[in-house]
Amino acid sequence: MTGPAPRPARTGGPARPLPRTAPGDPHAGLRDAVGRWFGATARDLPWRAADRTAWGVLVSEVMLQQTPVVRVEPAWRAWMERWPEPADLAAAPTADVLRAWGRLGYPRRALRLQECARAIVERHDGEVPRGEEALRALPGVGEYTAAAVTAFAHGRRAVVVDTNVRRVLARAVGGVALPAPSYTAGERATAAAVAPPDDDDAVLWAAASMELGALVCTARAPRCGVCPVRDVCAWRLAGHPDDEHAARRRTQAWAGTDRQARGRVMAALRDAPGPVPRGVVAEVWHDAAQLDRCVASLVEDGLVEQEDGPGGVLYRLPA
Questions:
Q1: Catalytic residue numbers, as ranges
Q2: Which residue among 110, 183, 188, 251 is buried most deeply as judged by most CB within 10 Å?
Q3: Ramachandran region of residue 31, left (φ > 0), alpha (ψ -120 to 50) or beta?
């Protein structure tokens, strides 16, 4: 990785407190408190190390989408040892990529990451590009991932907003229990207003606010008693009002869902040395109609390939 290394972030470096900004800035106290807390408590994660690469940061951000750190860290280490550069992943057999993804969930992310690696090789000579616009032009890289790589890999100011940051801002600034179900224009404006203008400070704020949301300002059991911003948190000062969007939020149980069925099929194919007969696949799920639907969706998504064998239909991971 070239260019300035960011200050304390999800990607490493010794933390320092965020400087207070100009008098009258309503968010200076919030940023300062979160920065000081992060300086004392930041987790030691491999994608925060001083020798991190932009590629390593990009891989971590893709893996961390909807997957907890405890599951991502060993997978990330194995992945980076096997494919330390985009060119390595670009040339890998897709079946190996899906097996390495293992049980991280949402395996389409693995396909998009390999497509992204190939685009980096073809368009940028194997180097992760700089700038959010160039990053967002890569397959599978959206607004959040582009901002995160810009901040944590390249050390430049970006408004990095994930679920954790949304929750911190909703409570500390907005005074509500949880943000709206979908990211709103108002939230976007608030996030941009809170982020400091300086590169180093903006990177630190992004990392620190994420960490606060992940470890303290959690969705279901916030640890308000130890929160570094409890004295300025608008939600706490308002008496912890209930979630105004509770009726609109829907949670789906894992058991019996198409996601679980798809996962069973993928696990069977990952564990098999070769193509798997249809009869074997049929044994992984109790509902034949649901299984057929899920297998068809896996084929459509490019995660499974179907072929005719001497004994009937076979399924396998993409070559």
A1: 61
A2: 110
A3: alpha
